[in-house]
Amino acid sequence: MTETTTRPTALARGPTRTLRLLASLVAVETLLVVGYLLVSETTVLSVRYVSYPLVWVNLGVLAVDAVDVPRPTDRRTLVAAVVAAVYFAVLAWTTGLVGPGTGDPFSVRLLWAVPGWGPVLLVGGPVSLALVPFEAIGYGCLAVLVYGSLVRATAGALSGALGLATCVSCVGPVVAGAVAGVGGGVSTAVAGAANGPFAYDLSTALFVVTVGALWYTLR
User: Fold this and answer.
1) What Pfam families does UniProt report for this protein, alphabetically (predicted)?
2) Measured distance CA(51)–CA(26) in Å, rounded
3) What does the buried/exposed string (b/e) look like for 133-162 if buried means 16 or more CB atoms within 10 Å of the residue's CB?
4) pLDDT digits 0-9 by tens, 18-70
5) Burial tier of 201 (Cβ tally within 10 Å: 0-12, 13-18, 19+)
């Protein structure tokens, strides 16, 4: 009698499905960005800065869509889910999406910006939130991929788990967020502006490498 181990695997999805999903995402994003620019009369100073949020969202969604992510139904998958949740929390904290309370009364407001960068959800009170859409989505996708990688690693050899724990690309966003946080910024991308002219480029490149590395372990 054999026991079947459930683990996330790459789905047999053809390029047509992926292209359709990407085309749908780009179409919706283009409408939102163009509509916002027309309504707000915002001037675009650099196309690449408008594009970076789309790269984060599209790559993250496509990567998560490309793999099977099992539901946490037993102790092994529950532990993996908790670790992934902690990973997301650390990313959110080090990049400034979540921070300590200001001591001010509870408040909620939206800061409008180009879709992807905004609208930013700002929450004050016991805990401060500054949820930049593309970062929240991007880090959420990373957490899902980390969860899938952990489930696969714990279902296999111990070396697989050690490989994930020591993966530079996995911890890279946390380290980068901590460094950016020293500058007192709201988020990795926003705070990065104070740390050099190529901070946006580097944070996006690091995100792409991280997603690629995690997707590679699950393909």
Assistant:
1) DUF7546 (PF24412)
2) 11
3) bbbbbbbbbbbbbbbbbbbbbbbeeeebbe
4) 889 999 999 999 999 999 988 987 888 788 888 999 999 999 999 999 888 88
5) middle
| Separation CA 150–CA 137 (nearest Å) | 20
Q: Could you tell me if 124 and 107 are in contact, meaning their C-beta atoms sit under 8 angstroms apart?
A: yes
Name beta bridge partners: 188. none
What's the CA gap between 146 and 164, in Å, rounded? 8
The answer to whether 141 and 211 have CB atoms below 8 angstroms apart is yes
Per-domain boundaries in the chain: 15-99+132-218
How much is the average pLDDT of 84-100?
A: 86
Secondary structure E strands in the chain = 98-100, 107-111, 120-124, 127-131
Q: Which residues, 6 or more positions from 84, have their beta carbon under 8 angstroms from its beta carbon?
A: 143, 144, 146, 147, 150
Which positions ≥6 away from 198 have C-beta within 8 Å? Answer: none
